[in-house]
Every structure is written in structure tokens, then in C-alpha cells.
TrEMBL record:
Molecular function GO labels: metal ion binding; protein-glutamine gamma-glutamyltransferase activity
Entry keywords, A to Z: Acyltransferase, Calcium, Metal-binding, Transferase
Family, similarity comment: Belongs to the transglutaminase superfamily. Transglutaminase family.
Cofactor: Ca(2+)
Residues of the active site: 271, 329, 352
Pfam families assigned: Transglut_C, Transglut_core, Transglut_N
UniProt key word Nucleotide-binding: no
Name this protein carries in UniProt: protein-glutamine gamma-glutamyltransferase
Gene3D superfamilies noted in UniProt: Immunoglobulins, Transglutaminase-like
Gene from which the chain derives: Tgm3_0
Length: 690
């Protein structure tokens, strides 16, 4: 080899096409493991047979830790090791096809070449490339046989996240943006900032061939707890000093901000933001990943597969324990095999980057095999009991007297938790229900048997639990039943109209004292501020049903509403001579609509006008109006436009220009905020032609 630095042709276009990495906007070669790529270099004067290649990654590459490979030219590709096969030679250049094993460590590699015949000359550096997981390769742990699923769960940059509550599911778009400018580098530096890397870099890098290891490490790194990770969580309802979690529209801005600030945690995240950022990072590295929304999701803090909620005599939720039932919770599923557990536990694995409970001393969660959750195998790695409880826990509602410390069970239920578990469809923008993949049919004997099996594995069946209700308490039957019915639109800016329906189930008259409250909450159902309260006393004759209309004017709730637009309404009914009855309803109010129109055809590298239309639905002025727009391949970065204040019922039209730079179906995401409405989101599919 000549002593001069050889020049290398990485065949970026062809290699990227073959390796499904064309969407990365990088001048560096990015390829997937277990698959050949071509490289041509000049300056080789010796016979090619005498060339030795060295591929190495991490701070201290070694053969022992599988972070260094030395290989010569061979006639065939090796399945187990790195190998090089000669493609062609000319007077001064050589083309080589290099293959990595399907279980190679992923990350940035340095490639060098040495001539064995010229004695002790030092290796010549050919440059660097990045190696990723390969879901298209059958030897890879992340192999996904269905190509359409590979497209969606690795290459798709647009997602839909489901939110709201079980009575009222809504959704919004998200820009994962895993192929944007610097995202791959940020994902790689995330790995180098993890606690594991800081404690023992050599061992950490040697484990980077294992998706379950990386999934667990990244579930810790996406939250800021323990390790100065990407996002700081905040569920207080007050987001001063940062951006409110509901204002983000994509992961790119969050990851860029983290890097720009010198890797200081970005403020603020809530569950869907943590899950969306983890989706971006894992898709970027080549692990098929999606977001999952669980409605009525349990946070079982003490590991007893039971969630306790306490109410005072007035019907206020006392927020006394770390246990809670969230209106919804968003986590991730990633697709890979579980060599540690066996083939029946391979496939979708639950990962959760939201910091809820510590696991192994830090805030991380998973991978928990979805099959293990369904079968109640809660003794398997990792964090199965917590995930099992999220979709299966029993709920106990108690009345608590702060003066005496006495608690009385109001009622318990085993069918509330884990409903309408949702994810986006493959190649289309609709909701797919995956509840049956998490559990057997609610109320079936199989489902109850699995619950008992899980309790037994956790040692809960045999242990006396002084906090549990007595069988007598569980079996007591109420004299009346009640429910809240919605009687009007559930929209921010309109009065909230409900009907409380109470029915006497007995054949003698009952006197009932009802204490009602309404609180603004965040989506985790944490009470923030009281909005309204009232109390009534009534007599119900035998088997009688009565209706009581409730009206909470917009002017009464407007100041207290959080950015989640959620209100919890409670009626605690004290029945004379009988047990108490708790009636509650979680209300999610919809924001007014916003409309996007693309005016004309969207063509590559041609300007096109876009119009966003918003009508102020309330009879007061709205101010501080800001429009935020983003969309991969449609515009670079985020466009922010200040919109003039709008008088009552006034309509605003905001126009801006786009110059799309890639063809295909793209998504434009819009977020509109003002002083009265937080984060009105919508998205529009834009078909870009050549």
C-alpha cells in the first residue's frame, strides 16, 4: 500500500439503496448488519490477496469484546464473522464487498486496510461508517418477516398517537423524524452518555449487538432521571421554565435542543413525548418500534396488582397514595427475539421511558415480553409485574376520614383497567385495537385464572394483606346505582352539561345525600384545581330513577383548565342506612377545529401556498396566537408564525409557502395556540409529485 492516504469511494447511493438507509441525509456510509456493502479504494499496489481489513468500534476495540474484527479477502461470505470478497480490480484501485455478521455490535466503525506482504507498515485508514440493526435480514434478532411492517416501524417518520379517555378517544400526529440531519449522531451520543457506558465503556459497547440491552438502556436515557437524559417529566399542570408537553409536534426539536444545550434535559415531557422520542431513537438505530396507548392505565406503585383511590366525604379525590389510574398512558413496543426467554416470548416487547417506578435502581422499564404479560408470566425479565398491572390491576375506591384515619371500601372492580389498547395501522392513518394481544377477554374465566397465576407468582396469594378489604366489604351490595350522562357538546369554550342519574335498586324508599365536585385534572387524573361543587338531598321511592341536570359554565372552568382539557366530576352519595355510592366521570374536552388547505399542486422544488384557517368559537377575544408548522421533506426545521388577535367569532386565515424537496406522501403537522386554547393540533397528508 502506498504511504499516501488512500482515497475511498463508499458507493453511498447504491449501498444506501440496498440497505434501506437512503432516507438518512448523511455524507457518511450508513449500512445494516448481516449484509454486504461495496467499497472501492485506490493506492493498492500489492496483490489484493495480501490485504487485511480491520473494522473497529468503541473506545478500546478488541477481538475479545467483539468490537474489533480483522479479516482478509476470501472467496465466500462468512455467516459468523466479518468477511471481504473481491469484486474487481483496476490498475490502481480495488473494489471489495464487505459483510458483517448478523449479530455485530452496532455503532460507528473505523475501517482500515493493511498489506501483509510489506512487513510492518501501519494500517491505512479508509474512513468511518455506521452499522445499524437489520430487520430485513433473517439472521438478525430484529428480523421482521413482513416487509410492509418494516416500512412502517423502521422507515416511517410520521406517527399517530392516541389520547383522550376510554369514552372519548382522540388522536394527533407526530413527526418522529428519525432520518433528519443530526438525529443519528445524537442517538449514538445518547448511548455514550448512559450510566452503563460511564461505568464501563468497554462492556457497554460489547453489548450493543443486543436489542434487549439497548432498548433497556435507551428507556432510561430518554428520561432525565438518574442520568441527565433527554427529557424532564412534569405532571404539575404548571410548565413555566420550559415548553408544555402538549406543545411539541415532533421528536427532532427535542433531540436537537438536548444536544444544543450541552445535553441538559429538555423541559418538559409527559408519557407520549417520552414514547415518541424513544420511537425515533429505536427506529433510527433499526429496531422496529411503535407507540401504544393504554386507556384507564394503572400505575401500581406498591406491586400488589391493586390500585387504591381515596375520597373524602365531599367526594374530593384525596390523591393519598402513589397508586393512580391514568386516563391514558403511552409506551412503546419493539420487535425482537428473546434468546434469554425462548421463542414463545419473542416478537413485540414493551419498553417504557416514562419515569414511573425504579427498576434495578434507576428509572427504566422493559423489555417485557407482550406474550409473557398475556400469559401472566410475571416472573420473567424485565419489569413484567409493573406492565401486567398497567393493563390488569384491580381497583379499590375508598372513603377516607382524615380526622380519624378510618377508611371504608366504597366499591371494587376488576374490569376497569386496560381498555382500547391502541396503535396506528400499518401503512394507513387509523386506529388498530391490540387489547386482545395483552389479555384474554375481560371477565372470562381464562382472564381471571391468569390474574390468579400472576398473583401467585408474585407471592400475593399466600400473604395476608392488612390493607386489603375484607370479603364482607367486597360482597356488600349498594342500594342505589348512579351514572353521569353527557348532555351536550364536550368542547372547550362551551358550557359543560351533564345529567346525574340515580336509581333506587330496592323496594323501599331511600334518602340520599349527594356531595358533588368537579376538578380540573391532568391526563393522569391528578386533581389540580376545584372548579365547582354542590350538594343535594333527595328521596327516591322504590325502584325510582331521578335525573339531575348539572351545568358548569365555560366562565367557571376556563381559568382552571389544564392543557389536557380534562375535568373529573364526582358525586359521593351517602345513602341513609346503606353503603356509600361513588359516581364519577372523566371528561376530556375537545379543542375547536383548525383547517389546513394546500392551494395547488405540491411538486418537488416548487413553491406551493398553504392556508391555515381558524375560527374563534367563543364570545371573547383570543390573543397571543401562535402557529407552529413542521413536516418532513416539506420544510426544514419548524416554522413559527405569530397570528393577530381574533375577536369573538372572527375567522383568521394564515398563509405561508412550502418548497417540498422529496416526492411521495408527506404529512404536514400544525399546532395552534392562544391564551384561551392550548395546542390545537391537526395534520394533512400532502402528495408531492415530481
Amino acid at each position: 500500500i502506498a504511504s499516501t492516504q488512500p482515497s475511498t469511494n463508499w458507493h453511498l447511493k447504491e449501498n444506501a439503496r440496498d440497505h434501506h438507509t437512503s432516507k438518512f441525509s448523511s455524507k457518511e456510509l450508513i449500512v445494516r448488519r448481516g449484509q454486504a456493502f461495496i467499497v472501492t479504494f485506490n493506492g493498492a499496489e500489492q496483490p489484493e490477496q495480501n490485504l487485511t481489513f480491520i473494522a473497529e468500534t468503541g473506545p478500546k476495540p478488541s477481538k475479545l469484546s467483539k468490537t474489533q474484527a480483522t479479516f482478509g479477502i476470501s472467496s465466500t461470505v462468512s455467516k459468523e464473522n466479518w468477511s471481504a470478497v473481491l469484486q474487481s480490480t483496476s490498475s490502481n484501485s480495488v473494489s471489495i464487498s464487505i459483510s458483517s455478521p448478523p449479530n455485530a455490535v452496532i455503532g460507528r466503525y473505523k475501517l482500515s486496510v493493511q498489506s501483509t506482504s510489506s512487513g510492518s507498515s501501519s494500517p491505512a485508514n479508509l474512513g468511518s461508517f455506521v452499522l445499524l440493526f437489520n430487520p430485513w435480514s433473517s439472521g438478525d434478532d430484529v428480523f421482521m418477516p413482513n416487509k410492509a411492517e418494516c416500512e412502517e416501524y423502521v422507515l416511517e417518520e410520521f406517527g399517530i398517537i392516541f389520547a383522550g379517555n376510554k369514552n372519548h378517544i382522540n388522536s394527533f400526529g407526530w413527526n418522529f423524524g428519525q432520518f433528519q440531519g443530526d438525529i443519528l449522531n445524537i442517538c449514538l451520543s445518547m448511548l455514550d452518555r448512559s450510566l452503563n457506558y460511564r461505568q464501563d465503556p468497554v462492556t457497554d459497547v460489547s453489548h450493543r449487538n443486543d436489542p434487549k440491552y439497548l432498548g433497556r438502556v435507551l428507556s432510561a436515557m430518554v428520561n432525565a432521571n438518574d442520568d441527565q437524559g433527554v427529557l424532564l417529566g412534569n405532571w404539575s399542570g404548571n410548565y413555566e421554565g420550559g415548553k408544555s408537553p402538549s406543545s411539541w409536534t415532533g421528536s427532532g426539536e427535542i433531540l436537537q435542543n438536548w444536544k444544543k444545550s450541552g445535553f441538559k434535559p429538555v423541559r418538559y415531557g409527559q408519557c407520549w413525548v417520552f414514547a415518541a422520542v424513544l420511537t425515533t431513537v429505536l427506529r433510527c438505530l433499526g429496531i422496529p418500534t411503535r407507540t401504544i396507548t393504554n386507556f384507564s392505565s394503572a400505575h401500581d406503585a406498591d406491586g400488589n396488582l391493586r390500585v387504591d383511590e381515596f375520597y373524602d366525604a365531599s367526594g374530593n379525590n384525596l390523591n393519598r397514595t402513589a397508586d393512580s389510574i391514568w386516563n391514558f398512558h403511552v409506551w412503546n413496543e419493539s420487535w425482537f427475539s428473546r434468546s434469554d426467554l425462548g421463542p414463545s416470548y419473542s416478537g413485540w416487547q414493551v419498553l417504557d421511558a416514562t419515569p414511573q417506578e425504579e427498576s434495578g435502581g434507576i428509572y427504566q422499564c422493559g423489555p417485557a415480553s407482550r406474550n409473557a404479560i398475556k400469559e401472566g408470566d410475571v416472573d420473567l425479565d424485565y419489569d413484567c409485574p409493573f406492565v401486567f398491572a398497567e393493563v390488569n390491576a384491580d381497583c379499590m375506591y375508598w372513603n377516607y376520614d382524615p380526622k380519624t384515619g378510618k377508611k371504608t371500601l366504597i366499591f371494587s372492580t376488576s374490569t376497569t383497567i386496560g381498555q382500547f389498547i391502541s396503535t396506528k395501522g400499518v401503512g394507513r392513518d387509523d386506529r388498530v385495537d391490540v387489547t386482545n394481544d395483552y389479555k384474554y377477554e375481560e371477565g372470562s374465566t381464562k382472564e381471571r385464572d391468569i390474574f390468579k397465576k400472576a398473583r401467585k407468582k408474585l407471592g400475593l396469594e399466600d400473604k395476608f394483606d392488612p390493607t386489603a378489604p375484607t370479603p364482607r366489604e367486597i360482597d356488600q351490595k349498594p342500594d342505589i346505582s348512579g351514572k353521569f350522562k353527557v348532555a351536550g357538546p364536550l368542547e372547550v369554550g362551551k358550557d359543560l352539561n351533564l345529567i346525574l342519574i340515580l336509581e333506587n335498586l330496592q323496594s323501599d324508599a331511600k334518602t340520599v345525600h349527594v356531595n358533588m365536585t368537579a376538578w380540573s385534572t391532568v391526563y393522569t387524573r391528578r386533581p389540580i384545581q376545584e372548579i365547582w361543587k354542590d350538594s343535594i338531598s333527595i328521596t327516591l321511592s322504590p325502584k325510582e330513577e331521578k335525573q339531575f341536570p348539572i351545568k358548569i359554565p365555560y366562565t367557571e372552568y376556563q381559568q382552571q383548565l389544564t392543557t389536557d382539557n380534562t375535568i373529573q366530576v364526582t358525586a359521593l352519595c351517602h345513602v341513609e342506612g346503606g353503603i356509600q355510592v361513588l359516581v364519577q366521570r372523566d371528561i376530556t374536552l375537545d379543542n375547536p377545529a383548525i383547517d389546513i388547505q394546500v392551494l395547488g399542486e405540491a411538486k418537488v422544488n416548487k413553491e406551493v401556498d398553504v392556508e391555515v384557517i381558524f375560527t374563534n368559537p367563543i364570545d371573547m377575544e383570543v390573543t397571543d396566537c401562535v402557529l407552529q408548522v413542521e413536516g418532513n421533506d416539506l420544510l426544514r426545521g419548524i416554522l413559527q408564525i405569530d397570528v393577530p388577535p381574533l375577536k369573538a367569532s372572527e375567522t383568521s386565515s394564515t398563509k405561508f409557502k412550502l418548497t417540498p424537496f422529496e416526492k411521495g406522501s408527506k404529512h404536514l403537522l400544525v399546532n395552534f395556540s392562544c391564551d384561551k386554547f392550548a395546542d390545537i393540533k391537526t395534520f394533512k397528508m400532502v402528495n408531492v409529485i415530481d
